[in-house]
Amino acid sequence: MTATPAPIDTVVYDVGNVLVHWEPRGAFAAHDPADVDAFFADVDFAAFNHLQDAGRSLDDGRAALAAEHPRWAGMLDAYLDGYPGSLTRTVEGAADLVAELKSLGVRLYGLTNWWAETFHHALAAAPAIGLMDDVVVSGREGIAKPDPEIFRRLARRFDVDPARAVFVDDSPVNVAAAAGVGFHAVRFTTTAAFRGALRDLGVPVRPAGAA
């Protein structure tokens, strides 16, 4: 006889591009776009950003930038100064869904790759984060997704059973990592689609478009 799946009691949210849109070029509104493009390409900003997400200190980031790309040494502070501009808007419908899950008694956690020094901007830009029971921020942990250990760390810290938890993220590699640890893992595209995925897993949220 097939065992009945355990009911979902926890939802674990990524933050960037799931609760709030993040576009790093938005931090450089006062700069020539051609210079910004050159900076992103020369320093491999995605790789640089991941090291900061994983807990590298600002001092070490500055030192690495100055040593490897002295032309762009000032751009890190420009990025930090303009950082609120990178959080362009909340994701449509996300706050309502978080509030609804909270009203249903679902436990809510965040698990985000984010610099320790800039996460306070996310809290201001996406008030739904305040409804979370807690948030694991990679830059504070010194480890970042998709490392499986950060998922295990969240599960241990908050007594989360992955078999009873949904993890949602816009990154396919992070979704795959969560699934490998045993979470019901959903790739985020839209809040409406995520509502449908939750309903398929037995979470009694309203259908997309319902009043």
Can you describe this structure?
- It contains 10 helices and 7 strands.
- By secondary structure, it is an alpha/beta fold.
- It has 2 domains: 125 residues, HAD superfamily/HAD-like (Rossmann fold); 63 residues, no CATH class.
- Strands 5-4-1-6-7 form a 5-stranded parallel β-sheet, sandwiched between helices.
- Helix 1 crosses helix 2.
- The longest helix is centred in the first third of the chain and has 11 residues.
- It comes from Xylanimonas protaetiae.
- This is HAD family phosphatase.
- It holds the Pfam family Hydrolase.
- InterPro entries: HAD-like_sf, HAD-SF_hydro_IA, HAD_sf.
How would you sum up the global shape?
Answer: globular
Q: CATH homologous superfamily of the largest domain?
A: HAD superfamily/HAD-like
How many helices? The count is: 10
Strand residues, percent: 5-15%
**What are the segments in which pLDDT stays under 50 over at least 5 consecutive residues?**
none
Count of domain modules: 2
| Total beta strand runs | 7
Predict the CATH topology of the largest domain: Rossmann fold
Question: For this structure, what is the CATH class of the largest domain?
Answer: Alpha Beta
Mean pLDDT: 95
Largest sheet: 5 strands, parallel
What's the architecture of the largest domain, going by CATH?
A: 3-Layer(aba) Sandwich
Q: Decide which structural class fits the backbone.
A: alpha/beta
Q: Largest beta sheet: what is the strand line-up? A: 5-4-1-6-7
Query: What is the string of SSEs from the N terminus onward?
Result: EEHHHHEHEHEHHEHEH
CA radius of gyration is: 18 Å
Oligomer: single chain
Head-to-tail CA distance between termini? 39 Å
Q: Tell me the helix content.
A: 40-55%
